[in-house]
Structures are given as structure tokens and as C-alpha cells.
Amino acid sequence: MLARACAQDLFATALVQLVDDGEGGIRYWPGFVSDALAKQWFQALHSKAAWTHLQRPMYDRIVDVPRLLASYRLDVTPPELPLAEMLARIQQKVPAPYNAVGLNLYRNGDDSVAMHNDKLHTLAGGYPIALISLGDPESYNHFAVGWAHAMNTPLQWTKQVASHWGGTRNGTVVHWPKGIQAKGEQRMQFAHVIDVAPTILEAAGIPEPLSVDGIQQDPIDGVSMLHTFNDAGAPEHHETQYFEVMGNRAIYHKGWTAVTKHYTPWINTPRVPLDEDVWELYDTNKDWSQSKDLSKDMPDKLRELQRLFIIEATRNKVLPLDDRMFEKMNPDTAGRPVLIKGKTQLLAGGMGHLGENCMLSIKNKSHTVTAEIVVPEGGAEGVIIAQGADIGGWALYALNGKLKYCYNWGGFKHYMVEGATTMSPGEHQVRMEFAYAGGGLGKGGKATLYVDGKKDGEGDIEATLANVFSADDGCDVGRDGGSSVSPDYVAGKNAFNGKVKGVVLSLGDDDGKHVIDPADAIRIAMARQ
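The structure corresponding to this sequence follows.
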């Protein structure tokens, strides 16, 4: 408890001092931490005498990680621009007779997505990363569970635990000079992120669309917050809201919350059956931090809200509950339909930022990657196609005129296969064939490179990522548009120096030809339109 109290006090004090430090260009995730800022936090940590009450080994770990809170500070600072500057820029763009409505949602705390104790982990699968990289572009800037808990106080738990407010109850700033007469006031009516769209539609005088491009739309579930803008005592219109994330679930109704924490994100053990979860009851009209459980005192009220949760979960297609996590990231293991039909996908040159759900899933199976390229005079250099990020993915590219393939296993090991041939100027068809070893998920295999149908190199890939490459980096053709999958090139300066005419991804074992007919690839793609 002392550590939580000290961390909360330290954060509150330092945030006031640092929130307007003029750095600018703040990234939401990951936020990059300067050495000067890390040093400032380090000094603040050492200046707190309260830390010395802790046992020495724990104290040593705490004061050795000043970058943790520095990363956190950037994570909760408004993205890209301070709010006042952002609003000023908006108003400069809006014609004088009109006015803009600005809604800025803040994070109230951090999550415990993949970190435990003083060991830092990435999203890729829970493997240690170097502390010195925290806050740099090479890391996802989460920190240990204890710090996440401290930063969410006095609310319980963290993000992912959708049952409780910690990490999920967020402040929102609304700016609308033309429509709001009140200045600097607070509104305490319950609202949800699904209320933002109805609020803007009402403010603009635009009705909810019944159809878009001829497609009938589901009704918007949210309700407008507009009636509260000039009336602090206005009745609450959003009276009921369900919450559910991988089995952690809750229901809000007229100030009351019934909640149950099904699992703890950082404890990787088999989960109890859903019907064995223990429910809690809170009157958040009086107890906004959910500190006094009333479930034993008011069992009838708890049953009423539990029944309401089932009703809302049924209406919103939440049932049946599915408490899996990583399995749901991969459509093959989740059992859900995918956007790409068939076993091939044609990508045109220049396509980019394609999310994993927009791509043929090549995980845990044999596959091929074939590209038609034009090599310029002077030799080939740069990325032909890449998917993922520095924390996991794969890339096919040219290095010093030769074809090369990199499989990035979670950011911890890079399996490289390099061709032997220096490609001459002109058109070439390059190809990577991956023969999956099988025997389960995340196994290895053999990658073989071909240039114009001739074998050019091969190598073993000892392990692969079973579920996800990256949460936010996509697939790019002709460059690697995010963080670099391969250490052979740098972010932002890796575009192919020739022309990538197209790329075909294909599932299954190779047919033995090691080449494809571009006309056939186009014909197959067009047949699916």
C-alpha cells in the first residue's frame, strides 16, 4: 500500500510540473522518452524519502526504473499536441459564422497487458526486453503491474478488467464555444464512448442515417450528451451499459454497478468456469471508486442487475461468452470468418497499412510470397513487401542487389535467408516458399528463395508467431511503413528503389513450378469481385 500511495503522489506532483514542458509532438503509443525527461523523473524518485521505508531490494528495483513513469507520463498526455493548441488550430480552420465541437477523451490509467513485477515484457508473447529501450521506438511502453495498479488508484484494477473502473473510467473535455455557455464546469452524468457520435449528430442537426450506400444500418446504441452541456442538473439519459472483455464483465444501471472479475490479466493460469465467477455490487451514486461491496447486503439488487446483464449481452450479441485471448486474434483458432476468400491474395504495388484482418492469414501453415519487380540500373535495394513490426513479422527485400527474407520472431530473434544471385536490371519474379513443419501452433519450417523460378537460397526458421505479428503495424508493398521488421534497414528509409508491380500470397505447399503466371493471378483475383 505504501508503494501505491507513494507512486500516486509522485505521479500527481510530477504531472503538474511536466504536462506543459513544451516538448510537443507527443506520441500516444509508444511515447518516446527523452534522456532529460527520464533523468528528471529519476531525481524525483530519489527525492521521495518515503521509498526508503521499503525493503532494500524492492527500493533498488524502483529507483532503477525512472523511465517507467516517464513513459507513462507521455502515454496519458494528449496525443500530438497540447489540447489548447489543438483547439486553437481547429478554430483557425473553421469559418467565422460556424463553430467546431471538440471532444477529447483521456486515458485515466494504464493497463497490465503483458508485464509482471519488475520484469518488462512486450506484447509479442511475454519475453524480457532491455530496460534501456523503454521509451524508445524499439519498445512498447508498458510497465510492471504494480505501477499500473498505482496509476489507477483509487479505482480498482486496470484495463482489460472491464468489470471495474480502473483504466476504463475516463475524463472527457468538450469544447464548443458557440453551443456551451458554461465555462470550466463539470458534468457527472454517466456517458459512454458510444455517445460521442449521437452527440455530434445532434449538435450538427443531422439525423442518424438509416442506410449508407444502400446498406441498411443497425441503430446507434448511444445517446446524445447534448442536453447536459448547459444544464448540470439534467437527467441522465444513458441509464444502462454492459461491459465485457474476455469474461471480465459488468452492468451499469442508474448509478449501480454489478461486476465480476473473471480473470487477472497477468496471471497465466487456467481460468475458472464462467458460472463460478463471484459478483460484486456497488452504488456508484455514492461510491464512485467501487470501494464498498454491497452484494451480501443487497442480494436482490445484485440478482436484478445480473439478469439485466444477460438481457443486454443477448441484445448486443455478446453471448456466448468467450474468455480466450490470443486465440481470438487469429481467425483460424477463433473460428470466425475472414475478409479474404480462398487461398490466394493479390496485392498491388503501393498498397500499405493493411491490418492483419485484411490479409490472408499465413500463420501456422505453409505458404508462398511471389512478387513481380523491376530492378533499376545500379541494382536492387529496399523492401518488396513487409508485414508486422520490430516486435514481430516478416519481410522480403533486396539487400546489396540480392534477395533476402527475414522472419522476426517476437523481436527477440531474426531468422535470415539470403539469396546468392545479384539480380540484373530489368524484370524479375522473386519468390519465398515457406514449408511449415507442422505439429501444432507456432512451429518452425524452412524458407526457400527463388529468382525467376530458380532456387537462390534456403534456411531454417526455428519458430514462428502463432497468433499475431503486431497490434498496430500492418502490411506494406514496396516499403516497410512502420517500425522495421528487419534490422537490415531503418524505418522511413527502406522503400524499394525499383518498381513492385504486384505481390501474390498463397497458402499451401508449392506446386513445384516455383513461378506463377501474372495473368492467372489477376484472373483469379477478378473472379472473386
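Residues 2-18 form the longest helix (17 residues).
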